[in-house]
Every structure is written in C-alpha cells, then in structure tokens.
Amino acid sequence: MQDTSPNIQDLSDRSREVFRRVVEAYLETGAPVGSRSLTRQMSQKVSAATIRNTMQDLEYLGLLGAPHISAGRMPTEAGLRMFVDGLLEVSAVGGEERELLEGAAGDQSELPALLDRVGSALSGLTRGASLVLAPKHEAPIRHVEFLSLAPDRALVVLVFADGHVENRLFTPPPGQTPASLREAANFVSAIAEGRGLSELRTVMSREIKARRQEIDSLAASLVETGLASWAVAEGEPDRLIVRGRGNLLSEDAASEADLERIRLLFDDLERKRDIASFLELAEGGEGVRIFIGSENKLFSLSGSSLVVSPYMNADRKIIGAVGIIGPTRLNYGRIVPIVDYTAQLVGRLLAGRA
C-alpha cells in the first residue's frame, strides 16, 4: 500500500510556518491554538481569516485537528510525526544538565544502584518518567538452587562463574515438595554449568522434552516455572527501572482524562512481562528514536510518547536502553539530546567496567 501521507516539502512556506507555530505553541501550552493568536507571530502580516483557511487545509491533510468546532487547532499524531521528522530543532545539552547526569553516574557502586541513580537524574531533568533497561548478566552459570519460602512462593538462586549471585522470586506449581525442589535444582545444575542464561533456556527446553519421562512431572513443571522467572523471552521485570511516575501523575496542567490515561499507561507497564520489546524498539540503529502515540509498540495505550536510545558495551553491541515516556506533548527539542547524552554516558561507564 502506497504511503499517501503529506511531506513537509509539499507544504507552502505559509502553510509550513502556520503548522510549525501551531505545534510549537501546543507543545508549550498543551492547549489548542487559535488563528487570532497566530496573527501576531507570523513573519509576514497575514489576516486571521487567511490563517484559518490555512489551518483548515492542514486539517484536511490530517496534520491538525480541532477538539471542538469553535476551538483552535492542535497537532494530530501524524502532525507531530511530521514536525519531529522535519522541523524539530534540537538544543544542546547544557552544562548543568551534564554535571547532574555525570554526578549521578560518577559513583563506583554496583551497576543496579548506578542505573537507578541515572534514571532518577534523567527523570528529574525532563520532568517525565524515565525508563532504564539494564543489561542482562551473561556470565556462565556455576550453580542453581531452588528454595521454598511458602506454599506459593519460592526462590531461585543463580551463582555465576564470575562470583555474581542473583536471587529471583517465582510462583512454584501447586504441590511442590522439598524432594521436587532438590530434583529440579539437580536437573538444572547438571546442564547449566558453563552456560549463560540465553543458552541455558534453549538447552533446558530441549532437555525437558527429551527427558520428560525420566524426571518427576512435578519437578519438570517446577523447572519450567523457575526458568520463566529469569529467561529473557519471558521478560525480566527487575531489568526495567522506572523512575518519576509522580512527575506525570501530579502534572498541574493535566486534565482528568490525561491523568487517567497516564494511570492506565503505568498499569500497562506494571503488567507487561515481555519488556524485551523495549530493547527491540531501540535496536533499529544508533541514536534516539521517537515513538508517538499509537507508534509506541511497547504499550497498548496510545496517547503517550516514548523517546528512547540504546546504549552499547565496549564491543559496540546494544545491551540496554534508556528513555523518557510521557504525554505526546513533550518538549522533544530538549528531551531528545538529554536522552541521547544519557545513553552515551551509560555506554561509556559500562565500557570502562569491562
């Protein structure tokens, strides 16, 4: 199907200026923009009637919309996409902003704490909610153990060859016993040593099928449940660090509908298991990517924007991502370079730790 959406080059100089000023005013105020207010801003003297006609043309093209018949115009998702791709002017990251981010990242603490501070700093600078996808630990596994905490709660302990230890909570299958826990742990440990988590998942799936008749069915179920609690393909909730939710929920200018949409957005985030899709959003190449409204594939909810950038290790391999999420009315010109700088900063820090 051929793309019939308008191009910024297809607009006349006047239409382009009216469009740009409507979008910039909307991003600043969040309110529809009327023709009369634009007459004082245009580079050449133009009547309000002429501006109204131009805005109607832009509305016909699908770039502007009107919430009410008598109201001014505001950009549609297609309009915001055209603005971001063709007219967005990106500012430089200020010295104070750099110092704040570098100060948050300058401590030689453990990686989770470091990324948490970076996320908090990013949220504070942008007044949005920050997302940080931490790199998964890929060192070979030395030992696996399952521990029962309650009838409906268990703990898997992963000991890696480099000394790193991870504890993950999961829900075991009904009726698990100490014997089935030990049997499951022995089964996993026998094939886990020397393998990373990604490889282990593939091997375990194959082994479980091949040896289904050799092990107790309850232990097999426990193995599968425990595996799902840490495998990348099933999501790793503790890899996604979210900071600054209150920045969105307490937005003074937000309407009741906006606040409800934001609450739904975060409910969607908290329910989402497969956060590997967040990293996939950033894997289209280096640099910042912007997802507006329904383009945002991470969440089922439209009406939000995600500005995300991948970060890389010393081998230039994408291993994580940082981003800002919020309403479509973001200050893209300021947020894009901040997200980009944060991703580069995290990449340099991880490369220095290698």
Automatic annotation (TrEMBL):
The keyword Transcription applies. Keywords: Repressor, Stress response, Transcription, Transcription regulation. Pfam families: HrcA, WHD_HrcA. Residues 10-78 form the Winged helix-turn-helix transcription repressor HrcA DNA-binding domain. It comes from the Bacteria. GO terms for biological process: negative regulation of DNA-templated transcription. GO terms for molecular function: DNA binding. Residues 114-336 form the Heat-inducible transcription repressor HrcA C-terminal domain. InterPro entries: GAF-like_dom_sf, HrcA, HrcA_C, WH-like_DNA-bd_sf, WH_DNA-bd_sf, WHTH_HrcA_DNA-bd, WHTH_transcript_rep_HrcA_IDD. Negative regulator of class I heat shock genes (grpE-dnaK-dnaJ and groELS operons). Prevents heat-shock induction of these operons. Belongs to the HrcA family. HAMAP family: HrcA. This is Heat-inducible transcription repressor HrcA. It comes from Pseudoroseicyclus tamaricis. The lineage of its organism: Bacteria, Pseudomonadati, Pseudomonadota, Alphaproteobacteria, Rhodobacterales.
